[in-house]
Every structure is written in C-alpha cells, then in structure tokens.
Amino acid sequence: MPDDTAHALGASRTFWELVERRAALTPDRPVLLQGDRVLTFGELRSGAEQAAAGLHAMGVRPKAVVAWQLPTRIETVLLAMALARLGAVQSPVIPFHRDREVAFALRASRAEFFAVPGTWRGFDHTALAGRVGARGTFEAYGALPAGDPSTLPPPPADGTAVRWIYWTSGTTSDPKGVLHTDRSLIAGGSCLAHALHLSPDDVGSIAFPFAHIGGPDYLVMLLLYGFPAVLFEQFALPDALAEYRRHGVTVAGGSTAFYSMFLTEQRKQPGTKLIPTLRLLAGGGAPKPPELHHAVVREMGVRLTHGYGMTEVPMITMGSPDDTEENLATTEGRPPEGMEIRIADGEVRLRGEAVCAGYLDPAHTAEAFDADGFLITGDLGHLTPTGHLVLTGRLKDVIIRKGENVSAQEVEELLHRHPAVADAAVIGLPDAERGERVCAVVEQPPGAPPLTLGDVSAHLRAEGLAVHKLPEQLEVVDALPRNETLRKVLKYRLRERYSGTVK
Where are any strands of DSSP class E within 285-334? Predict the structure, then answer.
C-alpha cells in the first residue's frame, strides 16, 4: 500500500509547497539524473529559488504569463518550479511545434515572457520567437537567470488558482488552451503514484517531452515517493538503452508506442533481459491492444500497467501491479478516490479534483461540461463490476457504414493479433454508396510477407469479427504518422491522405 508520507505530501496545496516538503524530508536524495549530472531534492528547491529570484529581477511577477518551449532537461524542470515558486502562470509548448502553433499559443495566452532553448537539434527557436513577435524572449538551456532568494515575495498559497495553460493537439483547427491549477496536477500525479505502488528504491524515466501534461504528472510522483528519474532530452532506441542500464531504471514507459519499441529491441536478444533492473512498464495516452500487453509480459518478463488520461485530466484511471492479468490486459485500470466516472449513453464523463478548470475560451468550457459539472470526454466505454474502466473507442472513431456502427478500436485490436502486423490504424473514409467505408492502414514487422486485403479479411473472420465490420480497403505503410510527444497515431493525416482513394 502507498505509505503515509506520500499520502500526506499529496495533500500539499501548491507545487511549491510539495517541493519544499520533500526537500525538507530527503534533501540529499537524487531526483533528476541526466548523463553525468545528478540533482537532489534539496538542489531542486534551492536552484528553483535562485532562478525564481533571477526571473523576478527580469520583471516576472505573480500571475504573469510565461510560455516556455524547452526540451526535457534539468534546467527545464528548475524553470518550471521557479515559476511555481513565483506564482506565475506558465504555458508549456512542445519543443517540436513550429511557427503556427507557437504563435497561436503566445497570442491566445497573452504571454509576457517566452523561454526558448536557442538553437536546438538544428532549429533556431530564438529566431522563431522573433518571427512570431514573442515578448520577453530569453534563452534557458544551459543556464537560467539567477538571483538572491531573499528578494522574493512570499510563495503562493492558493492551489486552486489557474497557474498552468496546456495545449491540446490541434489537427484541423487551432488547439485549445486547457487551464490547470496546482491542485489538479497534484491530484493527477497522486493517482499515478499510488496506483503503481512505487517506493524510494525505484528509479523512473521521463522519455517524453516534459512540456507534455505528463511532465508535472511524473514530477509529482517523484516528489511524493522520493525517488529519481532519468531524463532523456532525445529518446531513441537502441541508443537510450545504455542510460536505462547505467542508472538501473526500474520503471519505464510512456505510451503504447514505447511498449512496442521496447518489445522490438527485446526481440533482437530473446532470453536476455533488455534492462536487467526493469520490473514495470507503465504509461497511457493511446489504446493498448491486449495482445501487445501479453507479448510484453511474456517476452520482457516485466509487469505492464496502462492508464487513461488526457490534457484536460492528466490521470483518470491506472492499472495497478496487483490487478489480475486479465484486467491489466483488457482495461485501463480503476479511478482513484475522488474521481467520478459517469457513463452517459456509452460516453465517458468525468468529475473530480484532477479535472481541468476549463479552457481559455469560455465557449469551449461551456461545450465541454454537462449540467452536473462532468467533463464530456468524447470517449466511449463502460465500467466492469470491479470498477475497472474499459474504453471501446472515441465517438469520432466510430465508423458509420450503411447505418451500422463500426468501432475502429475493435478492428485494430484484432489486427494486432496477426503475425504480419506490427501496428494498425483503422479509419472511416467517405464513400458515396456506404456513407463511410472501413480502411485499415498497417505497418508490418521486418521480414514479414506482404499483406493483402484477402489475408486481412480471412484473419478477422477467423477472429469472429462481423462481416459488416471487415475493412474494404488496405494500405500498407512504412510508418504510421505520429505526434512527437507520446507518439500517438495521427489519424486525421491518414484520412487526408486516403480520402480520395478508392480500392
């Protein structure tokens, strides 16, 4: 069971209070590991205070909006906590975003300051800031502003004030600014931490952009349980394996795509554990095919727990290592105490402390919540008798073929059972006769024989799929298009690519 200390820390009102309380308990224990660098909890507190004083001298005041577009580095975490110490409103921007997305985020949030990494991975972010007219641009990669902490105003005390603006992924329209408080992020991180049954002896890893909503989620977990995480500024396998092994990582993951990447590497050396210390893969952010779960557990010799979250609610449910294998493979886990899940006409709705405070645009807020204050997710699912949540797809992922509903997720999960399929995305395409037709887009593993539509249909029929749900079009690609955060498949790009094709 989670220890009393972690539960007590989870009651912290603000992020800064959580940082201070952890630093007082274990100042010399490491919290962040990156290459040869080690930052302790005490150094996190003192470094953030010095950076806060430097920012204050630059003119950053409580409630000022500060946007930052930074890679996953120790300095990035220090900057985020410095802003938390000041009580500023921070707006993280994924470092892979370019002029259009950055300009929108700065304009919509009315950012007064903008932190960038200079030239990073061959791209000049400072020049980007100039092109989009960013105010108060400063570089925060190798060094942060520094000053005397005695000059700082008192730390914020209200954990329910909006202090974070995160951005949903814009596809065919502009992204939405999601408003979070310190308490909503602490509540989300607490759900993740307590579900995973972690201890101070664990070593975690952050292999995704810290600017993602999962960044503070994970940091809360470190602060609650007092263990460190390895940071990856650039993540790729097999290159990253040396760092996992060097630091003795026990908990890794990120999303479904990360599980697949680890499994691919494991299959290069069957019988030899990929990361000797690894005991748990955990993540969320995308559907997890049961077959992938079973393959990871069987071939890697670790537990795999998967959860359900979104930018609006960073952690909704999470599988636990003591769940049954069936529940871990086929559900998203259970909600924590305080998270209410309502199923309305098959759709998942949420209410609780981890739910965002709404959106920058009040019109979006009005559309997103029902009369009882539940967030309308657009996800379809049901609760099992044990309280586990099963997701069956998204409303926009329901393909309506000749008036019959087809769940894209159902077809995808069955496709994953085919040995010649490495990954799959099922989409609906406009069709004059059917309304929509079912199209399967697949990646194949190296050396697999070419797939045909007949092969796919025969496999799905053998798996018991109803005839009206069978794909009528098959596209084989080298790689499915994915975003740069949790590597989710971008189905809108597939729809754009194949909408004009008829097979």
Answer: 303-310, 313-318
